[in-house]
Amino acid sequence: MSTDRVVLVTGGNRGIGRSIAERFVRDGYKVAVTARSGEGPEGTLTVRADVTDAAAVDAAFTEVEAALGPVEIVVANAGITKDTLLLRMSEEDFDSVVATNLGGTFRVVKRASKGMLRKKYGRVILISSVVGLLGSAGQINYAASKSALVGFARSLTRELGSRNITANVVAPGFIETDMTAELPEETQAEYLRTIPANRFAQPDEVAGVVAWLASDDAAYISGAVIPVDGGLGMGH
Hints:
Strand order of the largest sheet: 3-2-1-4-5-6-7
Strand content: 15-25%
Order of helices and strands: EHEEHEHEHHEHHHE
Shape: globular
Number of strands: 7
Radius of gyration: 17 Å
């Protein structure tokens, strides 16, 4: 499949974001990634951007538009964690996670929507987490920021749905990345026991769902939350 559509993946230099960018390259899209450091995969344009800074986000989009054209598909994936129990969580622990995971999505999607409205076409795909709806001790900041993306996508659908723009949420469960590899073995075993599929996912299994949401096959799907979690969060 070859397409001229332009995709921007935030946080596309590692983990799930990198796999998503690789999948879009394989599928023939023009792909740009934002990264605070490091480079996106081969075949992508890497632009520097801190998603907590609106001016930096604007500059990154301007750079992508000049090189590839208007962004038609945006995947808001950039995210951080600062895990600790509520009573130990500092204001900064809370504010920085929300500013990146939720505020960053707001800045990126707001900037992307201008071009989408002009083209009367857009795919907005927000990367949430099973934790956003299931909850997780020690992750009040992260879970709150990720569950908020559901209300974001559904409100955006109501605002822009008539303009051929969709907004959906993908909620991964435990994915085999550098981050999960660092977990102690007993923690990993504990997590596995709670997953009906009895395994962690590969990042490209998330990328496949994102690619499908960006395709014409999913043109009539908007405001949906699609879990990629092996059954972990069923019904949540």
